[in-house]
Design a protein that fits this description.
It comes from Urochloa decumbens. Keywords: TPR repeat, Transferase. This is E3 ubiquitin-protein ligase CHIP. GO terms for molecular function: transferase activity. The chain is mainly α. It has 10 helices and 3 strands; from the N terminus they run H-H-H-H-H-H-H-H-E-E-H-E-H. The chain has a 3-stranded antiparallel sheet with strand order 2-1-3. Strand 1 and strand 2 form a beta hairpin. Helix 6 crosses helix 7.
Length: 279
């Protein structure tokens, strides 16, 4: 019985290897067939479901991506790519809230693994997109509700002053109680929409190279803050010097700028539209 089981597992693994070869050659249909055979032989191996999900991802077959990534995650919840692919499928369905949760799970797993893989940047990009789209969707709803409430309040205020005979301006043209209350009401509702009004992000929250809002800011001995990945690329491809001050600089001299990172997180929490800078 055990020997037979080993044989089935070996056959499944051979199908996976064959599928990988097809995937590398962009023969996605053939790769899907191979992974499907592997799944039929050993349905409890998460990587087979994951590999097939990747094929569907390349084809943008989002319903199949969701189904296979969910099966893979049910077998192994630590699969970073599983959460990433599921998030992408949910993003396509415009289920932004659940997509955000999956992308955050992927980032947390990468962080716990201390990974510097490019995967982290890919996940951050789609997370930023999901958060911006989520803000955009709910912002439209919030603005509409606030405007409707403002109009209802103005109508009620006008009716109150009409019935009390205080709707007309004073004879000298000065503002009366009604006009003052309308002005105050307008100010209150204007403040209520401030968080949903895009403005320029403060310069100190953005990298001087990319002009994008910081995700992982580091400070150099010269006192200049940059996005870590961008600065490391500069040091690797351009030279070991600070891009702004031109002073000599090595990777080990970089220090995380925790104050700026916290400031960015606080800003994004209050102004989710700013994620558009990283989409």
């Amino acid at each position: 019985m055990a020997a037979g089981g080993d044989g089935v597992a070996q056959q499944a693994e051979l199908r996976r290897i064959e599928g990988n070869a097809c995937f590398k050659k962009a023969r996605l249909g053939a790769a899907i067939d191979c992974y499907t055979e592997a799944i039929a032989l050993c349905p409890n191996v998460a990587v087979y479901w994951m590999n097939r999900a990747l094929c569907h991802f390349r084809r943008k077959e989002w319903a199949k991506v969701e189904a296979d990534s969910r099966r893979a995650l049910a077998l192994d919840a630590t699969l970073v790519k599983g959460h990433y692919l599921l998030g992408c499928a949910l993003l396509d369905k415009e289920d932004f809230g659940l997509a955000i949760k999956e992308f955050e799970k992927a980032l947390n797993l990468l962080k716990s693994e201390n990974s510097t893989d490019k995967m982290a940047e890919d996940v951050w990009q789609v997370l930023a997109k999901a958060k911006y789209l989520d803000w955009e969707k709910h912002s439209t709803e919030r603005v509409w509700r606030i405007q409707s409430l403002k109009e209802a309040c103005e109508s009620a205020l006008q009716e109150h002053h009409f019935l009390s005979g205080t709707l007309v301006e004073d004879s000298d043209g000065s503002s009366n109680e009604y006009s003052e209350q309308i002005k105050l009401l307008s100010e209150v509702f204007s403040k209520a929409t401030l968080a949903d009004t895009p403005v320029d992000v403060p310069d100190y929250l953005c990298c001087q190279i990319t002009f994008e809002i910081f995700r992982d800011p580091v400070i150099t001995p010269s006192g200049v803050t940059y996005e870590r990945a961008v600065l490391l690329e500069h040091l690797d491809k351009v030279g070991n010097f600070d891009p702004v001050t031109r002073e000599p600089l090595k990777e080990h001299q970089l220090v995380p700028n925790l104050a700026i990172k916290e400031a960015v997180q606080a800003y994004l929490k209050e102004h989710s539209w700013a994620y558009r800078l990283n989409c």
